[in-house]
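Chain A, query sequence.
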Amino acid sequence: MAPSGLAILIGAGPATGAGIARILAHPSHGNLAVALLARNPTNLSSLAHSLRSSAPNSIIEIFPTDTDPGNLSHAFSHIRTHPSFQGLKLRVGVFSVKHASKKPFLEETHEEFTKSLHDYVGGAFAFSQEWMKLLFEHHGQKALADGGEKKGTLIFTGTLGAMRTNPQFAAYGAGRSSVRMLAQSLAKEYSAQGVHVVHTIANGAIKDEDGEDQRTGKKMSAEAVGKTYLWLSEQGPELWTHELDLRPAQEKF
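Chain A, predicted structure.
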């Protein structure tokens, strides 16, 4: 069965990213061709091999890149022309980049603080721009009120740090909350044009497993996150979720 569209995921790691990609790509679930973006080419290649084995007949291609705007633009240029994606319209984007920073405030330098924001928040900005440009290339910009269609769904994987932070997490809190505001701004600007923008708050550990920790609600399964993201991407304009808490049953909040 031919793929129903294209999904682009940046932050394709062995846990959350793997589960999301597997569900989006699997012919019995999302049946989307998936472009995987991440920094490490070796790890990315290994992940793609594993995903193709666990999701037979899926289309999964890799594009090694970091969040630098120039490198992202280069990666998207390759996505545009890749033979596996010809004739497919962009449907889903997922920004699931890891962001961790903990340091006593008076020990953190200005350079460290601003680099954290540049790499994470700037990366979310650059990825969103490239994704949005490709989306409009594929679907046009006709507004819903003028008979336009839902064009796609852009999802940012956030954490509780986007809502509140703790001592020694100044850069982390600033970065996570900034991406949350970026998602909100994009939702308000582009919803009427048929672009669904979501910010999720993943509160708790996520593992690409289906074991005792998942059964008892100690940890989330990455595939459960993927199924949630697929559900979000299938929402019609009559009801769009913008922000969603994700947590396992035993996680305190």
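The chain has seven helices and nine strands. Residues 95 and 251 are 24 Å apart (CA to CA).
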